[in-house]
Specification:
InterPro entries: Glycoamylase-like_cons_dom (IPR019282), UCP028431 (IPR016883). This is Beta-glucosidase. This protein has 461 residues and is mainly α. It has one domain: Glycosyltransferase (Alpha/alpha barrel). Strand 14 and strand 15 form a beta hairpin. The protein is built from 16 helices and 17 strands. Strands 2-3-4 form a three-stranded antiparallel sheet. A two-stranded antiparallel ribbon has the order 1-16. A two-stranded antiparallel sheet has the order 5-6.
């Protein structure tokens, strides 16, 4: 490798110093002030390995040192910013990311088991509200940190992301060493402690929040379609505190009104995306529930979930190709809108749920990278766009930065756990189906899906 990069430059020096000209030997060609060393083009496999390794760093190198769970965010320009805040949902994604690292040989298995054990012991002692963890907690004792004034209790949706991970951990380690079996048993105990039925308020519906101070005042019913599909599946799968199928059909599916016969860019949208009538929502709606839930050949009376997730990605790609607002560089290799950091109009950094009806010219790398199972060709193009063409600009210490905008020559050198946490798992599902196999073959998952009326020829129910 060194010869191909440096010999041409070396030869140019020799030739320039020995060349003759009408002006004599003093007229030599000067060396370039800043010689450019060509960037090595990665193979597809090398690129996939690299981005998985990089994303894993967020949950390994930059994990909270006490709990071993995920920090809510990491600002490279201010590493101590909100460093005491542990994010529940992002930690769930991080737990699954570590499983991927172990399976790939990117992380030492014994140390990973030790860290996972520390993390689960922390979750066991942390604040729980009828079994549900809060959205945020402190990194010392797991005490709730309010996400909002009234959001200071249980967060059922974030809890479901953790439970998805707990089942995955249990299934991965249950036949391992004594220490691994103990870890699997701890994961099983923790997820079975969630009182899903409490969060129905006695109705045929699930509610997002409950507070010991404010009760049900937030009153956020889980109605589709958004990132909360996994919450209903976890609740129906619980062997200790299950909900009825009626809650899924009446609330989540809105008695069938969840179905949408419309199209965008000629592609069926399949379901009604909350707040995006006739369009699709942010890309994370096809990620958070599907780290463990395999949508391929998964159907109920409302959707074919393989088609749903693939169409979501197709519409997102086509939106970037069509580029109705004329943003710079949008194409089939530079695409992906989801909730992430964003560039405000005044140039400062904010946060928004990017989607076709809220396109501010900002690309969120996790949107495309976590869509590998659904749009592999375009996701691979984006991966090479990042690592072969723009690595020095858009990739940092823990993988791709959270957001960037070619239009404004802007990038935020920051990370969010919920965005970084879906990259390695979803790429692994594309590469091997690892997490899908673990989660979908768990007996409780199968029974829960059957209870709700799902069918999967792939998993035999």
């Amino acid at each position: 490798m060194k010869s191909s990069l440096y010999i041409p430059l070396f030869l140019s020096v020799i030739l320039s110093c020995s060349s003759s000209s009408p002006e004599g030997n003093n007229a030599v060609t000067p060396l370039p002030t800043n010689p450019v060393i060509p960037v090595k083009q990665l193979t597809d496999t090398e690129a996939l390995d690299q981005v998985q390794k990089d994303a894993i760093k967020y949950f390994w190198d930059y994990a909270d040192s006490n709990s071993k769970l995920a920090r809510e965010r990491y600002h490279t320009e201010d590493p101590n910013f909100e460093s005491n805040i542990i994010t529940t949902g992002g930690s769930g994604f991080g737990l699954m990311t570590i499983v991927v690292g172990v399976e790939r040989g990117f992380l030492p298995r014994a140390e990973a088991v030790s860290r996972l054990t520390t993390a689960l012991n922390f979750l066991e002692k942390a604040d729980r509200f009828h079994g549900a963890w809060p959205h945020w907690m402190d990194n010392k004792a797991g005490k709730v940190i309010p996400f909002g004034t009234k959001d200071n209790g249980g967060d059922l949706v974030e809890t479901s992301f953790v439970c998805q991970a707990l089942i995955t951990i249990r299934e991965y380690f249950k036949n391992g060493s004594t220490t691994e079996k103990e870890l699997a048993a701890k994961a099983d105990e923790l997820w079975k402690g969630v009182e899903w039925d409490w969060y129905t308020k006695g109705e045929e519906a699930l509610y997002w929040h409950w507070s010991p101070n404010y009760g049900w005042e937030m009153n956020f019913k889980l109605e589709g379609y958004n990132e909360c599909l996994i919450t209903y599946i976890m609740a129906a799968s619980s062997p200790t505190h299950p909900i009825s199928a009626a809650a899924y059909h009446k609330a989540w599916a809105r008695n069938g009104a969840i179905v949408n016969a419309g199209t965008q860019y000629g592609v069926p949208v399949v379901l009604n995306y909350n707040g995006a009538t006739g369009s699709v929502g942010p890309m994370f709606w096809s990620h958070y529930s599907y780290l463990g839930l395999d949508p391929n050949n998964l159907k109920d009376k409302y959707a074919d979930y393989g088609v749903l997730t693939q169409n979501h990605a197709k519409i997102m790609v086509q939106h970037s190709i069509t580029n109705p607002k004329g943003w710079k560089d949008y194409s089939d290799k530079c695409w992906g809108l989801t909730a992430s950091y964003t560039r405000n109009l005044d140039g400062t950094t904010g946060y928004t749920a990017h989607q076709p009806n809220n396109d501010t010219g900002v690309i969120s790398p996790t949107a495309a990278l976590s869509s590998f199972p659904f749009a592999p060709t375009e996701a691979m193009k984006f991966l090479h766009y990042l690592y072969d063409e723009n690595k020095t600009k858009y990739v940092g210490i823990a993988g791709p930065y959270d957001a960037f905008s070619p239009q404004y020559n802007w990038v935020t050198p920051r990370y969010l756990a919920i965005d970084q946490g879906t990259i390695a798992p979803m790429i692994e599902n594309y590469r091997s189906g690892l997490l899908w196999k673990l989660f979908m073959n768990a007996p409780e998952t199968k029974q829960g899906l059957i209870t709700l009326g799902f069918h999967s020829s792939k998993y035999g129910f």
